[in-house]
Every structure is written in C-alpha cells, then in structure tokens.
Task: structure prediction
Amino acid sequence: MEYEISLLTIVGISIIGALSLNMILGFCGQISLGHAAFIGVGAYTSSILTKSGVPFLLSLPGAMALSCLIGIIVGFSSLRVRHDFLAITTMGVSFLFTGVVRKQEVLGGEMGIAMIPDPGWGKLGYMVFVILLVVILAIFSLYLKRSWMGYTFDAVAEDEDTASIVGVNVASFKLIAFALGTAFAGLAGALYAHNVKFIDPESFGFIESITVLSMVVIGGTGSVWGVITAAAVLSVFPLWFQFIDDYKLLVYGTLLCIVMLFSPQGLSGIVADLKGRLVNSKEGLHAAD
Result:
C-alpha cells in the first residue's frame, strides 16, 4: 500500500507540472524548452523557506510567486521572438538556471539541498493533498480553456498577427500565459521537493524539461484530459521499467517523433478520430436500415 501511495503522489506532481506547461504551450501556443527551470525555482524556494522555519503551506505561495515573477521576466524578454527562436530562448533559461544554482552555495551548489522538512502529514495525507491540488488545477484548466480568456489564447496561438488586427493585446496575453504556467510550475516544484526531501541542479535540467514537454505533446497540446493521461503514464513508465530511466531522452524523443508524424494532436487527436469513425459507422448503419 505504501508503494501505491508514493506512486500516486509522483503521478499527481507530474500532472501538475504538465498542466502548467499546457497553459503556455497548449493554450497560448508558446513553446518552452526550459519549463523544468521554473519547477526548480519553486522547489528551491519552498525548500529554503521551510528550512528557515516557514510553515509548508505558507511556502507554497512563495514558491509560486517567485516562479511567476521569473516567468513574467522571461516572457517579457521573449516577446520579440517566436517559434524556433522562442524555443531556443527558453532552452537557454534551463541551462542558466542549473548554472546559477551550481555556483551558489546558499542554494546548496553541486551538492543540492538535503533534509527538506516534512509537512508532517504522513505519506497518505500528503498524497491526498497532492491529488486535491490536481483536481483543483484540472478544473481551473478546463474553466480557463472554455472561458473568454481561453478563446483569446486560442486566437493568439493560431495567428498572432490576425489576433492583433482584431484588437487582441497579444503581448499581454502571452505574459498572462507565462505567469499562470510558471506559477503552477513553481507549485509542482515545491510539492516535488517536499516529497523526495532532496533536490540538486540535475533534478531540473534539460532532460526534465523534455520530459514535461513530452507529456503535453503526447497527450495533445491544449487538451486537459489528454495531458493528464499522458503525464500519468509517462511518469510511471521509468518506475515500472527501470531501463527507460537510463535512456529517457531517447525514448521520449522517439515518442515525440512518432506522435508528430502520425498524430500531431496526440492522444486527444486519436480519441477524437476514433469517436468520429464510430459516429460515422453508426450513421452508416442507420442509413442502411
């Protein structure tokens, strides 16, 4: 039972991280190859705060706020670039984060931060808390996607120039997407840190950014349920099949290539296609009758 509780906790944290990137990439079409850096900011912030005596629950808003602030700064600096150039810019953020952390003794340097305080709720209580946050974030994501802001995000993702012509402040909505996505990334990082009790620069490197990106793309960019499903599956694969962890970048890269070649909409596209075929087959049967 203890193993299942730990597994569900890891799955929940992975889902939060993937949903946070989905707000930037899936909703607003802004690709980010350095999302793990924002997760890392939340992890380090919460760890330092709690080791300084700040209660765990109060450290979470602090982690989200700092990740959000840095996300806005990165988003603001990325307003002048698009597509491939934006991907390169955000990838640079990932390397910058790990480089800075390695050189700062106050952040643990190469050795990282150990003995991160436990919230004191037990593994079951912590799992319930994480799952509750997953439910809240999933509901928020669905609401956001179907709100006027979600439709505006869609317009920006489809064609920034056209959206600007019809009166959308493209820069503002890009920043909002970065702010929301990086804030929840900080939450995922804080939850991760207090779950494993130890973090180091390698925990939030480029490979981790690709892992989160894979969850979003394979699930279907913009699809809340697709991303949740992909995050759940991809987060347990390395635990069930240990050899995958050694070749994570190769495996996820191959999966990304397969998805982009055969189903650019990911799992959500496959499900939609199957539903369409099922409906058409039923209509054909009715017509035959």
